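=== RUN LOG ===
request id: a7f3
mode: sequence -> structure
chains: 1
length: 106
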Amino acid sequence: MLVMKHKEELRIIRERILSDVPPGLEFWTCHGTIVRNIYELVETIKSLNDYAFRYHVNDDNEKNDFADWIYDVVGDTVLAHLLKDVLDKDKYVHMIEERIKQLEDA
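=== RESULT ===
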């Protein structure tokens, strides 16, 4: 019974993290791109130039808009904590892709 409960909890977590966020809680990039879920986020980050990425993620202001959105809106505290201090765009993308794969395989 405990295994079934654990699997159900994982399914709920996976669905919440991989689904669209509620209307009004989308992420808007500095270029006006609207992101509704983690899949769109990773594709958007890939397409950002260095300036746009640094606008949202930088150590000057200890700013990490993407990790904050993942934590506060998407609800993936694990991924948000992993990304909090990452400043390299390629590493950032890789970590999100790995988390997506982990959740899809769970």
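=== NOTES ===
Strands lie at 27-28, 34-35, 57-58, 63-64.
The longest strand covers residues 27-28.
=== END ===
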